[in-house]
Amino acid sequence: MTWDLVRAARALLEAEDTRTDRGPITDEWPDLDLDTAYAVQDETLQRRLNRGEHIVGIKLGLTSRAKQQRMGIDVPLTAWLTDAMLLPADAPVPQDQLIHPRAEPEIVFVMKDRLAGPGVTAATALAAVGSVHGGIEVIDSRYRDFRFTLPDVVADNSSSGRFVTGPVGLPPEKLDLAMEACLVEVDGQVADSATGAAVQGHPAEALALAANELGRRGLAIEPGWLVLTGGMTDAVPVPPGTTVAVHFTHLGSLHLTGG
Ligand code: OOG
Ligand code: MG
């Protein structure tokens, strides 16, 4: 059977729904290019919407050097967030629904205005932000051992799993986001740290990048949407029994347990 975008979208959603990791799609479909991979991503979104999920925003992936080095890919990407990916504060990682979850600290924007590329700069992007929050993304690649190429991970909705946002929301003008730091603790031990500058020099640069990427595809970032700007540090595994804490300078602390 030959590959096409519908087959790829089905295969990735089935891997997710059955918690079965798989080899990279590009092993079987080496011609999968970036544009087709985004079309696969959009097809998986359509299938999520058809089963009753709603878009709540977007995420960026691979925006920091730490993430790019770990994954061996230095091109940032965007993906979709739906309400089914929202993890309530204090809820444990739903291990029975995920394959091999990893947690990463992120700076999250809640949009007040519509943002449509091309030509969006960090300054215009930040002016469209209503509030800034700390967050933890729980990524969960459908690919075995998180091994993938750029088209693979784009098709796989950038390893989307779950995400949590913190209770503290500040207007962007109250923060120096390049200097906003996060400290990641695993079971009470410091595991990693970074500042917002790790994310494309400034998280607003990541937001601008997302607006321009969506603009290229005729889409826009809508008011009320959440934007996860990308892991500031490498992700840490969250197996059952693990507790991850993320402490931000001004955006509060979040705690996540592996259940
Ligand atoms: C890709 C997902 C990347 C981020 O914040 O960089 C991502 C992966 O690491 O599996 O969510
Ligand atoms: Mg992420």
UniProtKB/TrEMBL annotation:
SUPFAM superfamilies noted in UniProt: FAH
A GO term for molecular function: 2-oxopent-4-enoate hydratase activity
InterPro entries: Fumarylacetoacetase_C_sf, Hydratase-Decarb/MhpD_sf
Highest taxon in the source lineage: Bacteria
CC per GO annotation: cytoplasm
The name this protein goes by in its record: 4-oxalocrotonate decarboxylase
